[in-house]
Amino acid sequence: MQLHCFGDSNIWGDEQPNCTIGINSQPSKTTFPYYLAKKLGIETVYNHAVSGGSLQLVADSLLFNFLPKNHSHDDIVIVYLPNCSKYSFVTNDRKEYNSVEDIIRYRLRSCVYDNELKKDTVEWMMKHLWHEQALYYNVIKHIITIDTFLKDYNNVFYFWNTRHHFSSFRKGQDGLDSELNFRNAWFPTDDLAEPCIGNSVFDKDIIDHDNPAFERIKNRTVDWDILSVFDSISDQLSVHKYKQKHHAPQVHEHYVDTFLYEHIKEKLNVD
User: Fold this and answer.
1) Pairing between β-strand 221-223 and β-strand 155-160 as defined by DSSP bridges
2) Distances from the Cα of 121 to the Cαs of 51, 118, 194, in angstroms?
3) Which residue, 111, 190, 202, 240, could crosslink 167 as a Cys pair with Cβ 3.0–4.6 Å?
4) pLDDT of 83 higher than 50
């Protein structure tokens, strides 16, 4: 049995010791999938996560990098659902874009949201291109796509980012705010940084309805709010988060030791 994990920087291990980002990058190997594998006696972990990864990227990686390799359907598949959608563009003159796998891993390097995107353009986008519930439906669309790709696999476990529910759409669901926060010196402005979007936007029925397509997703979900759990563990252990808000290895390890290992062990389905 092997373990495969998908997600963003929270799975890759950004800011943790030994983690590198870029060409020939290496994960930290101290995020919770690794601690889980060790507890289960699994020697091989394939980390398909990408720093800055999005929902589309997880789906792309599953479709192009994972499914064609015909791994055992009894392998463990950990899917962390990033908090956003991102649309990026690549050019064909980048030497590292010489395979599908390279395009998936490195395409965020050419993100459309860069320092050349001017304030007036962004403000127009904010004013005219938002529909909060539509952003949430976009999340559901991607998780159903991901789950469809994995329908024949026996040991699939989902971990949701905090902002997928409880409404903080503009701060997370399409990633624009967070991208600009890191890339543009003028951001945030008062009118963009604190949008007034309340819980009334949250369509609770989309989680709780009895649609058969979503029933399997609910059954495979381990944690609907994993980053909040990590925040609580950090407080409990008196461990500070890193500068970019990633969690320390001991937080990931504690999560596995006190909850995840026993939960997964009970759920494992192996022929």
Assistant:
1) parallel
2) 26, 5, 18
3) 202
4) yes
- Computed from CA positions of residues 69, 47, 216, 198, in that sequence, does the dihedral angle turn out positive or negative? negative
Q: pLDDT of 178-220, one tens digit each?
A: 544 544 444 444 444 444 433 444 444 445 545 677 788 888 9
Report whether 233 contacts 255 (CB < 8 A).
yes
Where b means 16+ CB within 10 Å and e means fewer, 217-228 reads: beebbbbbbbbe
First to last CA, the chain: 11
Of 130, 201, 131, which is closest to residue 163 (Cα–Cα)?
201
Amino acid at 92: N
Q: Are 123 and 188 in contact (CB under 8 A)?
A: no
Q: pLDDT over 90 for what percent of the chain?
A: 40
- 212: tokens are 């058969």
pTM of the model: 0.78
Q: How many domains does the chain have?
A: 1
Distance CA(201)–CA(197), nearest Å, equals: 7
Instruction: Provide the residue range defining the domain that includes 240.
Output: 3-267
CA 113/CA 122 separation, integer angstroms: 9
* Rounded Cα gap, residues 158 and 142, in angstroms: 13
**Per-residue pLDDT tens digits for 23-39:** 778 999 999 999 999 99
Q: Any idea what the CATH number is for the domain that residue 61 is in?
A: 3.40.50.1110
Q: Is 252 exposed, middle or buried (0-12, 13-18, 19+ CB in 10 A)?
A: buried
Peptide bond into 188 cis (omega under 30): yes
**Spatial contact of 21 and 14, defined as CB atoms under 8 Å apart:** yes
Nearest to 78 by CA among 144, 7, 149, 19: 7
Residue 145 vs residue 84, higher pLDDT: 145
Q: Identify the top-confidence range among 77-81, 124-128, 134-138.
A: 77-81
